[in-house]
Amino acid sequence: MVANMFRSNNRFLCEAFTVFVACLCWLQIAQYAEPVKIPALPLPSYVGKACRANDPNLNECVVRTGAPVIKRITQGDPKYRIPKLEPLTISKMRIEQGTKQVGMTMECQECQLYGLSEVNFTAARVDLKKRHVEWDFWMDKLMFLGKYKVSGRVLILPITGSGDANITLSNVTFSFLYDYDLDLKENGKNYARITNSTLPYKIGGMYINLENLFNGDKLLGENMNRFLNENWRDIIKEVGPAVADALTEVFRATMGAMADLVPFEYLFPSD
To answer: What is the pTM of this model?
Structure first.
């Protein structure tokens, strides 16, 4: 029994000594390791002069400054970790429609989204005290091009097919609403971090064309596309959320990349 207790205590002392040595090694390495450099980039030159936090016309300034930047941003900017957004590749978009008239599932693989470069920035509401921002946008057209697969039914007819798809939305209005917090980093500067966001939207119309429906039967394919376009309001109930998700990811990724690199006081200087 004494021997067992001795072996147990000995094992505990060995483990404790190992942890102690590991901690010493870690502290030794940390002592000579270079500190992580936190980036503090200025606003991109194409943004122009930042809007001041105490500007009584802050909302107007944000729109005036931001509107011309959209076309440039969609080209991408590696320095600010912003990918090319025109066109924007969406790896998979899934539409599941279930109504009395239409019950189908469609997937669009590697969809190319066109139209972001033509977005119009129409209004802004910025509340720096509540850390809440709302941006309003409008675009004439938003086009998805890609490869689709569809199966299901429309009325009494089955619908099947795969091939090229064109889904074009028109008269699209949406708002990007988000809240943010400020994180104080080791360099003494604050960086914005989006905490939550929503993207309400309205779509005025939709055009859809699916090639090679019913194994290439031209008559059935044309009739089906005509029916889908006549009933676009039912279809858009499923297309809309997928579009909103895609746009939300674009805004969060773009703003997140910028916010990680540009201190908040550079975005809205107070003096």
So the answer is: 0.80
